[in-house]
Amino acid sequence: MKNLFREVLWPLVAVLAAFVVGGIIILILGDNPLTAYGWLLSSSFGSAKDIGWTLHYATPLIFTGLAVAVAFRCGLLNIGAEGQLYVAAFATAWVGMKFGGVATKVVGEGTAIADLPAIVLIPLCILTAVVVGGIWGAIPGILRAKFGSHEVINTIMLNFIGIALVSYFTQYYYKIPGDPIMQTANIGEAAHIPQLNQFLPFIPKDVPLNLSFIIAIVMCVLIYVFLWKTKWGYELRAVGQNASAAEYGGINPKKQIILAMTLSGALAGMVAIGEVMGTRHNYYDGFSAEWGFLGIAVALLGRNHPVGVFIAAIFFGVLLRGEIFVDAFTAKVSKDLGWVLQAIIILFVACFQKFTKR
Amino acid sequence: MGEILTIALLFSALRLATPLIFAALGGLFSERSGVINIALEGLMLAGAFTAAVTTYQFQNPYLGFVFGILAGGLLAYVYAIACIKFEADQVVAGMAINFLMIGLPALISGAVYDSSGSTPQIDKVDQLPNYFNNVSLASIIALLLIPICWYVMYKTPFGLRIRAAGENPQAADAAGINVLKLRYVAVIISGVLAGAGGAYLSIGQSSLFTRNMTAGRGFIALAALILAKWRPVPVLIACLFFGFTEAIAIQVQGASWAKIGGEDIPVQFIQMIPYVLTIIVLAGFIGLSRAPKALGIPYRKEN
């Protein structure tokens, strides 16, 4: 109980401190911080619709937060969730088009491969997101395990490479000629996942919350079970706590590093489920709102625990939803307040970690 | 293909390499002292924004350049406090600095100039001056910094101490060196240099600050630093090479000569070169690239 208190206390202090610093900045800019924070809260929790939107914004962050947390638990810092979700999103859109009967009139190939029914196509698309994200995550894992090269630098590099790669494919093969936006054609309708308001009547019609939110909750549970109730999860955490001790105890750290990074990439790739199959129904350039990087903040604030990640993701969902309203209803404060608050929170959490370790 | 290697392209490469040289040399000081610097991107943005605002307000690019440098140094001091005093995870704290500099300049310029996307345009005459064949004053400074940094790093007691703090802080401490103070100084120098690189972007290469205008250059500078194995002269070569690939990437777009077998050379593949090369070098395929031994490890004095 005392442990839990300490786990929760410092993240809360960090958040409060960040709001104080943010409030001072708002004051200097010439606005009333209480008005700004009032809008932040009322626009994200004020009504059923607002809550729905907040959860919608939180969903990709649950996936990326879990992704970073799993890697963290193995002692690895995955800065590459952004690249992982980009390649996964493109691949998912590709499968959704090609196997969804979309005969896109694009450069190169114009015909669909198959026109699968939803019951086959949806699992196939989800599998694509998981596998492709997993592969992009496995690369830095293998590089770390085999050559000892640091995953932080490699994942940063793979972000740029992955984003450039899918930008190339979009531009040269899957962009509809004449379309000014760099985007693919829409995926087949059979690949669309259901909106939650279709079967949950209490969710308002204009809330874009989709099945991916449920999948995100399920993943929180599964990752908890994996990390704390299975042998593999135990070994993964053992490597994270002390790699050489784990190796002495008969655990192969290299295997665990590759496993953790693959799993991390797969979780990041799952962002594609909600965004490609649920919200936009295609892939487009500049697809992510820096979800991969925000995942680092979410994991950190959530103390790398699935429950913490879930709560932290919703907190960041509040910022993402609320900043739009703060921008619109205050004279001086723009949407960028969210970025500033996030940055200060990360900085404080990172600094306070010194006190939680003891 | 002969059209590729024009003098104009080489000058373009130097222009594009200039912010990278500043930032990578900055990273050199910080990392050689044992502090990872993922924050180069944010430090550059601080310099770029402050330089653009100061130059616009006072119509003086030199003042703008100096203020850009100061802003970089000041932000680096914040970063140093987090990393050295609070022993925060250096990569995480660095990312926080980068995030802050995506939001804060936009927040300020939104409130002051009513435009969160960019600061107001600076007159052409108020930009940093160019000499000879369009070589910016900043490029000349950057080139001069290479031998200076080399000299400081290898021929002065200060440089020796920095390297000692990054390789073996315990031994350095035992020899009477104040490791923590030295790391503070090194990180602030890295902010000063990265700030200069950013300032050149907003008041030399262009005439205003735009949101996130570094567009990953801080990370490319970091890649150049790794490629150069944390040494000043190879840093110059790596940065010029990356500047060159960027110059080619700009020229390739829509150019008639840029074809292989009748197909366009996709610009994305040229843009990827620095990143792919860094991964290859880090994996040890082109000789061993060894980071300073104590890189990323907070130093705690034992009593």
Describe this structure in words.
- The complex is a heterodimer of chains A (358) and B (303).
- Chain A has 358 residues and is mostly helical.
- Chain A has a single domain (9-356), classed as ABC transporter involved in vitamin B12 uptake, BtuC (Orthogonal Bundle), CATH 1.10.3470.
- In chain A, 72% of the residues lie in helices and 0% in strands.
- In chain A, helix 4 (81-98) runs parallel beside helix 6 (151-174).
- Chain B has a single domain (7-282), classed as ABC transporter involved in vitamin B12 uptake, BtuC (Orthogonal Bundle).
- Chain B has a two-stranded antiparallel sheet. Chain B has a two-stranded antiparallel ribbon with strand order 3-4.
- In chain B, a hairpin with a 3-residue loop joins strand 1 and strand 2.
- Chain B is globular, with a radius of gyration of 19 Å.
- The interface between A and B is large, with 49 and 43 residues.
**Overall mean pLDDT score of chain A?**
90
Poorly predicted segments of chain A? none
User: Tell me, what is the CATH class of chain A?
Assistant: Mainly Alpha
Predict the CATH topology of chain A.
ABC transporter involved in vitamin B12 uptake, BtuC
| Poorly predicted ranges of chain B | none
Q: Characterize the overall form of chain B.
A: globular
Could you describe the largest sheet of chain A, including whether it forms a barrel? none
